[in-house]
């Protein structure tokens, strides 16, 4: 019997730190992974190669705070709702009267942020590690209420097809695209292979607001 839901949040962001999943990548790629570091001006920040330090204060981490209580600087991750384990999120769902949440990845320090990784194999390892962690550790705590979306890479059609198949094997019912399956911000005819594969798998496809525009676009119209 299908689960009956009274109230579902269809646009939730899983603002978790990269240390939650980055340990899953092969040791040779770990130096490329994003990580949490102290910010020189106080509070926490995220570091990734090819980008300036990203202060945690700007990661949409304002849950449970009024405007008067929100601080733009000196924010510590451990002080913020929603960044803990799955059990914490389930408790917060109960407090909010929410039966389940559709979980998009990090809004600011998610797939677009990870694309700063220069080594493509390391970047693909990051995508795979996040998807595996999300399915096997986080959503597995209560898959009826923690409805994760697999993340597609921004690289090539072959990479997207491979990750789509992997996400289906992990049990995801939907995925989120940050670019067209070919890796660019405009469509190509070859993308039809991805759309057909997703339809054959009955995989739901989502885009959050817009496609990402990081990376080299000099050869794009």
UniProtKB/TrEMBL annotation:
GO terms for biological process: secondary metabolic process. One of its GO terms (molecular function) is hydrolase activity. It holds the Pfam family Amidohydro_2. The keyword Lyase applies. This is Amidohydrolase-related domain-containing protein. Residues 117-210 form the Amidohydrolase-related domain. InterPro entries: ACMSD, Amidohydro-rel, Metal_Hydrolase. One of its GO terms (cellular component) is cytoplasm. It comes from Candidatus Entotheonella gemina. The keyword Lyase applies. Keywords: Lyase.
């Amino acid at each position: 019997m299908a689960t009956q839901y009274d109230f579902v949040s269809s646009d939730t962001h899983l603002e978790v730190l990269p240390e939650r999943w980055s340990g899953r990548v092969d040791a040779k790629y770990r130096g490329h992974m994003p990580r949490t570091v102290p910010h020189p001006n106080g509070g926490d920040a995220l570091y990734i190669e090819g980008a300036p330090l990203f202060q945690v204060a700007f990661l949409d981490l304002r849950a449970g705070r009024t405007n008067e209580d929100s601080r733009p600087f000196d924010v510590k991750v451990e002080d913020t709702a929603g960044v803990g384990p799955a059990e914490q999120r389930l408790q917060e769902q109960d407090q909010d009267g929410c039966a389940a949440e559709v979980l998009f990845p990090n809004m600011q320090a998610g797939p677009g942020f990870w694309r700063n990784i220069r080594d493509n194999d390391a970047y693909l390892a990051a995508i795979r590690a996040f998807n595996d962690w999300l399915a096997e550790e986080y959503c597995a705590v209560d898959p009826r209420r923690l409805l994760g979306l697999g993340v597609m890479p921004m690289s090539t059609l072959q990479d997207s097809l491979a990750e789509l198949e992997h996400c289906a094997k992990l049990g995801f019912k939907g995925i989120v695209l940050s670019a067209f399956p070919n890796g660019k911000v405009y469509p190509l005819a070859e993308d039809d292979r991805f759309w057909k594969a997703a339809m054959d798998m009955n995989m739901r496809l989502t885009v959050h607001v817009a496609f990402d525009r990081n990376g080299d676009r000099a050869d794009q119209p």
